[in-house]
Amino acid sequence: MKKIYISDVNPGMVIAEDIARNSIILLSEGNVLTAKDIDKLKKYGVKEVFVYDEEDFTMESKINIQFPELPPVVPNKKYKKWSDQFEKVIDITKLDQSDEQLNQISEDIYKSFLEKEDVVLNLFHNIGSEALSAHSINTAIISSIISVKLNMPFVFTNQLLKASLLHDIGYSLIGERVIFDYGHIDDKIVKSHVISGYNALKNMKDKISKEVIDAVFNHHERFDGTGILMKKKGDQINPLVRILQIGDAYDALIESEQTPYEAISYLLKQSGKMFDPYYVSTLFSITGLYPTGTQVLLNNGDVATVVKKGKASVFPIVNVDGEIVETGSNSGIYIKEVIKS
Ligand SMILES: [Fe+2]
Ligand SMILES: [Fe+2]
Fold first, then answer.
1. Are 270 and 219 spatial neighbours (Cβ–Cβ below 8 Å)?
2. In principle, which of 46, 49, 109, 271 could form an S-S bond with 41, CB 3.0–4.6 Å?
3. Is 216 in contact with 167 (CB distance < 8 Å)?
């Protein structure tokens, strides 16, 4: 991070430390600055701010800010800590020494979402994240949110988190990755990431539970029996797998540049086919039809961004130029269409 004068601050820069005046936080860490924010800081007499620069991000991949006006689902600092820990886990040669890291991330993710009643599923403006670690962490976050929503016991959620974090570890072993690996049942790389992940983990039964290892092996089975390898179906597939697949597919779709709306629509379309409908509906009850970050055109011609789910799944709360508007019959404002951003 670097400290710069307010006169050198430009829209798009990311705040690296909370900015406060008289104990009131004006802008918090992780916020992406807009021209309006900069004016506000000047008005409050802020002279210097800490902003992130690219070197702050361990992984050099592109800066990916999709929904800058929305808060991240977890603070960037925390997310980066998980990424750093996960980098140690993903190094399979050291996995037998890094089970402690795996325990720590799992527990931390679990605790982070335990108390949140109102989860804004905006995972997707994490900055500078290397694809596989971000995908694994995002899968774990979504799985955890579903599990907590269902009041599953900690022992279950903990296994689920580990399975989610490790599910694609095979890609790191083979050095290649298919991002959206749901439509390619005959793809050699997809098959081999399942097998090599399983082979690497199966001798670690003293550190990683059998359920987690089996979940990694089965994560490409499908609810309707059309998966790869074992062709298991329905409740022959462990719930750990049926839940993690929801997070896995949702994040992989976002990574493949689908909008959150397209991702949730895909899950709904595949509900009862690829995915267990019960867990699809649990995620749907959290996100609504228009997940956070969806750009929409309203019936009055305004363009808005979905901030969070409203009382009904189809009437979200939206942001129109900084103003929060509740859609639905009370306001007479409705979504006319989704804009592909
Ligand atoms: Fe996979
Ligand atoms: Fe995956």
1. no
2. 46
3. yes
Phi and psi at residue 246, in whole multiples of 5°?
A: -70, -45
User: Helices 76-90 and 154-166 sit at what angle, rounded to 10 degrees?
Assistant: 70
> In angstroms, what is the span from residue 152 Cα to ligand 2's centroid?
22
State the SS3 of 241-300: HHHHHHHHHHHHHHHCCCCHHHHHHHHHHCECCCECHHHHHHHHHHHCCCCCCCEEEECC
The residue extents of the domains of the chain are 2-56, 76-287, 295-339
Res 341: pLDDT: 58
Query: Which ligand has the minimum distance to the alpha carbon of residue 143?
Result: 2
What single letter denotes the amino acid at residue 141?
A: I
Predicted confidence band of residue 67 (pLDDT cuts 50, 70, 90): very low
Nearest bound ligand to the CA of residue 192: 1
CATH number of 76-287: 1.10.3210.10
Per residue in 6-40, pLDDT (tens digit) is 999 887 777 888 888 877 888 877 677 888 889 98
Question: Cα 334 to the chain's mean position, in Å?
Answer: 27
Separation of alpha carbons 296 and 338, rounded Å: 4
- Give the ligand whose atoms come closest to the C-alpha of residue 229: 1
